[in-house]
Amino acid sequence: MASNKTRVSRTPGNRIVYLYTKKVGKAPKSACGVCPGRLRGIRAVRPKVLMRLSKTKKHVSRAYGGSLCGSAAL
């Protein structure tokens, strides 16, 4: 299982500390099964964050916008 990401930061008191960031999300793949890449125009976030996003950030305004890529939807 992948671990959470960390980054090094300097505080105003001149200490070096770790900041624990979240895991990196991935954009969904196309449902056509032919195109190798990920869907464009859709936020690449973790599933829990995806629930809180508005509908406009989870699809593109085209028929089959959130599941098929542009070339497969034509």
From TrEMBL:
<dbReference type="GO" id="GO:0003735">
    <property type="term" value="F:structural constituent of ribosome"/>
</dbReference>
<dbReference type="InterPro" id="IPR038562">
    <property type="entry name" value="Ribosomal_eL34_C_sf"/>
</dbReference>
<dbReference type="InterPro" id="IPR008195">
    <property type="entry name" value="Ribosomal_eL34"/>
</dbReference>
<dbReference type="GO" id="GO:0006412">
    <property type="term" value="P:translation"/>
</dbReference>
<dbReference type="GO" id="GO:0005840">
    <property type="term" value="C:ribosome"/>
</dbReference>
<keyword id="KW-0689">Ribosomal protein</keyword>
<comment type="similarity">
    <text>Belongs to the eukaryotic ribosomal protein eL34 family.</text>
</comment>
<keyword id="KW-0687">Ribonucleoprotein</keyword>
<dbReference type="GO" id="GO:1990904">
    <property type="term" value="C:ribonucleoprotein complex"/>
</dbReference>
<dbReference type="Pfam" id="PF01199">
    <property type="entry name" value="Ribosomal_L34e"/>
</dbReference>
<protein>
    <recommendedName>
        <fullName>Large ribosomal subunit protein eL34</fullName>
    </recommendedName>
</protein>
